Amino acid sequence: MSDKPRILIFAGSTRKDSYNKRLAKAAAAASQAAGAEVTLIDLADFPMPLYDQDLEAQSGLSEHARRFQDLMRSHQGFAIASPEYNSSITGVLKNALDWASRSRPEEPLVAFRGKIAALLSASPGNLGGLRSLVTLRSILSNIGVFVLPDQLAIPRAHEAFNETHALKDAKQQAALERLTRQLIEVTTRLAPTS
Predict the structure, then answer these.
(1) Residues 6 or more apart from 66 whose CB is under 8 A from it?
(2) SS3 159
(3) How far is CA 125 from CA 23, 86, 134, in A?
């Protein structure tokens, strides 16, 4: 087993050209460079029905919901790039978190408790999607995730990335690298690999 911290990275969007997918990709590169074992996923590869307790009682977790929950269980830390829809998180992100939170009777909230998260956002607006992170922080904190106090919001996202989806601005890139290093350091201390 690797002694590197395992970090799961994804964007709260299924849109093909999502700015937050670009930010997630940049965070994955920064995390790998800082020494983490990184898994970068696309929520488009995990289509889940809208959470419905009757559906869950009838059919249990769908294959995609179980795969997503298993990925969250097997990683010690998360970096989540959250778009902002109407001053909050996307429906697809909330739905994925709701399915992942469904308890296995022997291990309630096992995909979340004791995990460490870094929050990121990118938006064409001047706040960079910052308002979505308030909601995301609240959700994750309330289900047992330690959310890093620092976070990163990239404004004017339509101008922020180059053709390889890396951040153009050196200060923004440095801030991303600091945040991912902090995620790795805190994850290593609080959620040891062994």
Answers:
(1) none
(2) helix
(3) 15, 12, 16
For position 71, what pLDDT does the model report? 97
What residue segments make up the domains of the chain, in order of their start? 7-190
Taking only the tens place, the pLDDT of each residue in 26-62 is: 999 999 999 999 999 999 999 999 999 999 999 988 9
**How many Å apart are CA 157 and CA 161, to the nearest integer?**
7
- Dihedral, 90, 92, 94, 100 alpha carbons, nearest 10: -160
H and E: helices and strands count for the chain: 6, 5
Measured CA to CA, the distance from residue 185 to residue 191 in angstroms comes to 10
Structure tokens at 67: 């795969």
Q: What is the pLDDT of residues 172-184, one digit of tens each?
A: 999 999 999 999 9
CATH no., domain 7-190: 3.40.50.360
